[in-house]
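Predict the 3D structure for this chain.
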Amino acid sequence: MPNLHRRPRVRRLAERLARRALHEVGSPLQVALPPPPPPPPPEPPQPQAADFLRALAPERPAVERGPATHALFTRLSDADVAEVERRVAQEPELEAYYSTAATPALREALTLIYGVWLGVPAVIEKTGLGAAQPPEDVHAMARGPLAAAGGLYEADLVIEALTHAGVDIAQVQSALDFGCSSGRVVRALHAVHPEIAWHGCDPNAPAIAWAKESLADIKLFVSGNHPPLPLPDASLDLVYAISIWSHFAPALGLRWFEEMQRLLRPGGHLVLTTHGLAAVAYYAQHSLRTPQQSREIADALYREGVWYAPEFGEQGDWGVVNPDWGTAFLTPEWLLAELTPVWSVLQFAPGRNQDNQDVYVLRRV
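Done. Predicted structure below.
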């Protein structure tokens, strides 16, 4: 009698029964397989515009010594410094800040600033700094005790930028503070390097009038809203402009670059600060602009390289009315495309000015 399992019909039935049994009790092969992977985690929420822009903020190392500040501080003796400390100790508000200075650089700066503010004769005589400040109705970027010695921070910034670019300021014979307001920065630089012929200009006539009365050793004049300036061709070795191209409409800014090229001797240098992506991050971090506007500016920079708005309106900026003077943001790519090869770029330091504005050092070719 033939075996039943050899019959096709019986064999198929046996196979079905075996498969059912395996399904019910679990096949050894199935048991050996790893468990299925867990479902993927949900997508993280997309960052808000401000969070995205904050990530663009540069991280800058602490500056050990400011070159301008340190040069002035070294003119003081230990006795001079002790006299400043003695007088500061009698002023609780000043002493509270002075005693907590976190770095030697800040301590040196505060010694000079408070020495000038308190009228310590040795500080004023040995450094050439002065405490005169314009009245409230005249434009000034800073007032009060911490502004007593002028723009030491910016003076450090200019000399440091030149030094990092390989420029020896000892070779500079004539220089211009372009957009000097009431002379806060140029007076500090003049104190460090009185041998240089310093000039300053600004369209704010009252600020220049006050500066001319108070800073007799600096050649100051009122500038127009548009080029040219009343200076001869190739008459300068250095021009610096702190937060000036951060306000020009792009077309006017390019015209002023052409004017700087006219004024500088071949090989002369232009130090300037601008708003860029680091500034967008700064405004977002400190909630100084809305997330929507910050994202709008960043998008415009990525698409076009520039963003400009006439934000001073019809009233102007301290009486200076100019539709091409507002707030501008520029990318290094836009500047490079527009300025080279007439200018060469020696340095680009994003966010170097107050963790906000980018610093450039350009050389006139």
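Residues 138 and 207 are 6 Å apart (CA to CA).
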